[in-house]
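user: can you give me the structure for this one chain? tokens are fine.
assistant: on it. calling the predictor now.
[tool input]
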Amino acid sequence: MTETTKPDRRYDLVVWDWDGTIMDSTPTIVHCIQQACRDLGFKEPDDSLASSVIGLGIHDSLRRAVPWIEPTHFPKLTDRFRYHYLAKDHELHLFTGIRELLVQLRADGYLLGVATGKSRVGLDRSLGFHDIGHLFHETRTADESFSKPHPGMLLELSDVTQVPVRRMLMIGDTTHDLDMAANAGVDAVAVTYGAHPPDTLKTSPSLAHVDDVEQLSQWLKENLTAQT
């Protein structure tokens, strides 16, 4: 047993998705994808399609959200998306209760991580703006690892924290998060208040579905410790 594992606990490292799980950003991301398409005169995806790609890296997201445009146009589309998102970034908020939950988990001695489709620059900007960067021990982004659902980000977090995958828990709001966890051999919990609806989340493996941060907090309280 490594120094980071404790026998009285079921999990030692809790890894979080960012957009739609920690930060209430789903509607803004959808709007920015659609606005970027309007700027360039492209057919825009509907809300359902635009929200379905949240959690992937930016390039994968746009290719899936707007598959009808020529590949040569994606750099311009990416630039327009980033332009609109940066204009809204400072208006985004953490989900109610998330900060308090993270603070409590950290105080209880759990390791916290992030595995996100955001870029490193984008994640660091959000961590700094919301003043919660100090709560996380390690973070991984899509531009420095593999995009979900590849297990790379979780496997890297396991390596750097020396926590075995069997003692890690992934929390996310999309099937991309849940499938990444399954591919890494990591347990997962789905939150239904983010990008993917409950029926979609049920198509991927998870231990539970929780509808809000209060339910998530209660589930963690009951399940992070070892089962007796």
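assistant: here you go. Residues 13-25+93-223 form a domain with the Rossmann fold fold (CATH 3.40.50.1000). Residues 74-89 form the longest helix (16 residues).
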